[in-house]
Amino acid sequence: MSINLIMYILAYIIGSIPCGLMIAKFVGGVDIRKEGSGSIGATNVFRVLNSHGVKNAKKIGTLTILLDAFKGFIPIMIAKFAGFDINVLWTMGVLAVIGHCFSVFLKFEGGKGVATSFGVFAAFLPLETIISVAIWFGVGKFIKISSIASLSGIVAFVIISFIFHYNIPGINTHAPIFVVAFIVFYKHIPNIKRLIFKEETKVI
What we know:
Layout: H1 3-16, H2 19-28, H3 42-51, H4 57-81, H5 86-101, H6 114-124, H7 126-143, H8 146-164, H9 175-187, H10 189-196
Helix pairs in contact: 1-4, 1-5, 2-3, 3-4, 4-5, 4-6, 5-6, 5-9, 6-7, 7-8, 8-9
Organism: Campylobacter corcagiensis
GO molecular function, one term: acyl-phosphate glycerol-3-phosphate acyltransferase activity
Pathway: Lipid metabolism; phospholipid metabolism
């Protein structure tokens, strides 16, 4: 087995770790897949734990975001430090997002992939990531609908990446970014349907 393939498998497996599910079970003793939206992401972690009266539910949701982001960021940075080719790094990033969204530990179900995507993007295009994350949180604070905020952040990143780096350094293509954005939008289809019918729940 080649070293590159090993790195791909590791990236997918690390991305598959369901941080939100584990945290909610440890802190609140609940299975967030069976409550709220059923998602393992930070928004549902906050909603479910808050509904159970768990203190600091918002901080725990924030911790979930950070851990999900680190799943994408840290393996890439380690591989970058080890001297792996940029194409290998981008492939690892895509696989980390796939792992989060289609986790091997959850029968290939998973979260929406937003935090992990930004963790991946931060390893390659930090300035674009900072601006896009600011838009993500800004829209979320103003509109208070998580799905709109998440999709706004992803769209913003795609646009800003073209403005700052029309040719992505080392690979000269935006293909990995488009793949990640497609996965995130695909996982948000239920949310998009609820938005169309004005049934999407706000985050308090």
